[in-house]
Design brief:
It is a single chain. This protein is an all-alpha fold. α1 packs across α6 and α4 runs antiparallel to α6. The chain is globular, with a radius of gyration of 17 Å.
């Protein structure tokens, strides 16, 4: 039983590391490739460049927030909400694939499927779901819990 818990805790840390790298490195794209990032935002959404900068800042803050146990779950909730917030841009790209000839259509569609699993990975690895359920002890299962 302890071995199984250890493997689960190890897997959670690996996934947390992936989530961190995804958002930490991805946040820089918002500042380096600003106009390309703004180009995927649907026309009906105003202030494309500002939206790219703001989402980049939130990606960076969320990535840094999941590094510390004390802020991990709340940062995880923020990253889940951010991922949901950028979904219209991903759906827009998939629906208007002809406007993005350099990106294969299969990749645009696969990204939408990946996003569902990625939301689950963010929530599980950061224990965001535990915080949403009202657990005061959200965190890794192998870490000490405060006394009740």
């Amino acid at each position: 039983m302890a071995l199984a818990r250890g493997k689960i805790a190890w897997l959670r840390r690996v996934i947390l590391g992936f989530v961190f790298l995804w958002f930490f490195l991805g946040s820089f794209a918002h500042f380096i490739f600003t106009h390309a990032e703004a180009g995927i935002i649907p026309e009906y959404f105003p202030l494309h460049v500002l939206a790219v900068y703001v989402s980049g800042i939130f990606e960076l803050l969320g990535a840094l927030g999941i590094l510390w146990q004390r802020t991990r779950a709340i940062a995880g909730i923020g990253l889940v909400l951010l991922t949901i917030a950028v979904t219209p841009a991903n759906v827009h790209m998939a629906l208007h694939w002809q406007n993005y000839p350099s990106v294969p259509v299969w990749l645009l569609n696969a990204r939408l499927v990946f996003q569902v699993f990625f939301l689950a990975a963010i929530s599980w690895s950061t224990s965001a779901w535990q915080l949403l359920q009202g657990s005061a002890t959200a965190g890794f299962s192998d870490e000490k819990k405060p006394p009740s």
